[in-house]
Amino acid sequence: MWSAGIKWMFLIIGTTIGAGYASGRELWQFFGHESGLAILLFVIFFSASCGVILKISYERKSTQYLPVLRKIVGSKLTGVYDVMIFFYLYTTTVIMIAGSGAAGQVFNISYWWGIVMMAIALIILFLKDINGLLAMNQIILPLLLGGLLFILLMFTFDQQLALFSHWHEQRNWTAAFPFTALNILPLIAVLGAIGNKIGSKQEIWIACIGSGLILGVISYIYNNSLIQIADEILLYEIPLFAILKNYPFEILIVMTLLLWFAIFTTAASGILGIVTRIKDFFKKPLWLIVVVTLATMIPLTTLGFSTLVSYIYPAYGILNLYVLTRLLLYPIWNKMEK
């Protein structure tokens, strides 16, 4: 029960912590000053929403997200959100691939070589079907989360930052709604593909509470660190590098590698949601569908990482508010429909 619950917990975290989140760009886009309460609300909303998605997925033993989506938004809107989820996964995976190019530039690697490396790694991963993704998450994510938390705590202590000095200033609490909504849609796609692999409801509790608490703690400390360097963030494509600039080059190398793996796990989750949705139409091997999908994505990465995050993430955060509302009110409307 525990090992399976932790496996799903890492899948949730791996889907959420991508280029936008791990780089700090997504957190700064939504939070920033006066956002402590917003992050607390995010933890509650996120855990509850994941619980509903996994419960529906488990009950239907689903292998792709459409049955889960139909239960959440209703038959009339299923087609609309099916298209939206597909384009969301598509565009955010493009963002992850662009993030790989941006991360590679730290080592003076060409932007395009960073993108090619990501594409090749994704193809190799899916040669082992979905099991390759689950195994990778259990190895990489503890290293990523530990490294990110270590750097943020080190920065907090070095700069002698107070973690709870501004709790009387919480005017940005409404940011919790679009931020949670942004991160919920890909989880419907990914968690909808594993319903037939979940063994018990206890696994769901472990996955939801664990992922919410871990993401909440890291988000709060990360956001608090970014507030201290607010004037410098505009100068960096990846805000995390503004935090790392005063530390030894070896730390920069390690964190850039971890950032790349964060990008990789989210790109892999996005690809998983896309290919499990369309594989029934093409009847081809999973890896071949991945190759064709990536070939259509790579030209779009020319738009740039920070530009894509700045425009696409807020738009999806607003568009997904209806889905978030349906998830949070699921116990009420589910009883009404019975």
TrEMBL record:
InterPro entries according to UniProt: YkvI-like (IPR038728)
Transmembrane segments: 38-58, 79-103, 109-127, 139-157, 177-195, 204-222, 251-274, 286-305, 311-333
Keyword set includes Cell inner membrane: no
Keyword Cytoplasm attached: no
Top-rank taxon: Bacteria
Entry keyword set: Membrane, Transmembrane, Transmembrane helix
Protein name according to UniProt: Membrane protein YkvI
